[in-house]
Amino acid sequence: MFSRIEKKDAFTTVGLEEAIPFAETKKIMPHILNFLKRFPEIKHTVNKLQYAVCPEPTKEAFIYHLGLEVSKTEDIPEGMVSRVIPAHEYAVIIHKGSKMTIMETYDYFFKKWLVEEGYEHVKEHPTVEVYDERFVMDGPGVEESIFEYYFPIKKKVEA
Predict the structure, then answer these.
(1) How many angstroms from the chain centroid is the CA of residue 84?
(2) How far apart are CA 159 and CA 150, in angstroms?
(3) Assuming Cys at both sites, which of 1, 65, 82, 152 could form a disulfide with 17, CB separation 3.0 to 4.6 Å?
(4) How many domains does the chain have?
């Protein structure tokens, strides 16, 4: 699962953002499908990567921002927002398989990787999911589907 540690420069995305209550996580799929229909509206894109940005959740919901990296934030389509992802160091964890098994990846990162590697999760920075041509949403090939989680980290300071 573990891929690498990567320092990433700050970048900006434009996309759809929604607060999804923890009790209503099934709302995420319609949010994703709506974004996939609308992402051709985004101007000034840098590449074809799709980003899901997940800042620290509130007590009631998690924030899910689906966007494309842009070079400038002019001409933002109606109903979309921009979000700046600050420069930071990340543990890049590869998720293989259906989105339905993402908790296995989370468990690996939080319960195994952090402990074994001597790092801490940095809650003040967002976790970022990166989707490219290897990702399959549903249907044939979903078990071979791949996307990457960028978990913000810092080296644990020994007391």
Answers:
(1) 13
(2) 27
(3) 65
(4) 1
The domain in which residue 116 lies consists of 2-155
Q: What is the pLDDT of residues 68-108, one digit of tens each?
A: 999 999 999 999 999 999 999 999 999 999 878 888 999 99
d(CA 47, CA 133) in angstroms, rounded, equals 12
CA distance 151 to 21: 22
Q: Can you say whether the dihedral through the CA atoms of 114, 24, 134, 7 is positive or negative?
A: negative
CATH number at residue 41: 3.20.80.10
pTM recorded for the entire structure: 0.89
Contact in structure between 95 and 147 (CB atoms under 8 Å): yes
Beta bridge mates, 88: 8
Token pair 């644990």: residue:
156
Distance CA 65, CA 39 (A): 12
Residues 6+ apart with CB under 8 A from 54: 62, 63, 64, 65, 126, 127, 128, 129
